[in-house]
Write a structure and sequence with these properties.
The chain has three helices and six strands. By secondary structure, the protein is of the alpha+beta class. A hairpin with a 2-residue loop joins β5 and β6. The N and C termini lie far apart (about 70 Å). About 5% of the residues have low confidence.
């Protein structure tokens, strides 16, 4: 009986170790997915990629811009694909994320080169804060807050 108890205890310990590591790997994988998403947004802005934004923004995605306006999903896609912002180059750095179940938040510094539709230069580095939601298709951007330069 003693050998059986010892085997059960070892099996339980192994199960708990594997089970807890699975959650740990999942959180790391989620943060890597969010980093890829924020990098993808930089590329999509510079390539004016409507299809990428359409796939990677939730239906209720909103963007808060420095002038105080709130943009819905379609207006956000229009703005970043040449309707307002003419971004020729963009990159994300200093990315940080916090995952809580099917929701996440994060931020990144975006260095951009480009102009507004009226020709005013907007080149510089901007802090963007994101909210993300995870669904069956993976992580999507649900909110973007653009801080001033």
């Amino acid at each position: 009986m003693r050998g059986f108890s010892r085997k059960v205890a070892v099996l339980i310990a192994l199960f708990l170790l594997v089970f807890s590591q699975g959650f740990s790997f999942s959180a790391v994988d989620d943060k890597e997915d969010l980093a890829v998403l924020t990098d993808g947004f930089a590329v999509a802005m510079s390539k004016k990629d409507k299809a990428w934004m359409d796939v990677n923004f939730t239906p209720e995605c909103v963007t808060y811009v420095p002038n105080g306006q709130t943009l819905d999903r379609q207006t956000t896609i229009h703005a970043f694909t040449g309707g307002v912002y003419y971004i020729t180059k963009a990159s994300a750095s200093n990315k940080a994320f916090m995952v809580a179940g099917i929701g996440a938040g994060g931020s990144a510094d975006y260095t951009v080169e480009g102009t507004l539709s009226d020709g005013n230069d907007i080149s510089g580095t901007y802090k963007l804060t994101f909210k993300f939601k995870k669904g069956v298709a993976g992580w999507k951007i649900s909110e973007i807050l653009i801080h001033g330069e």
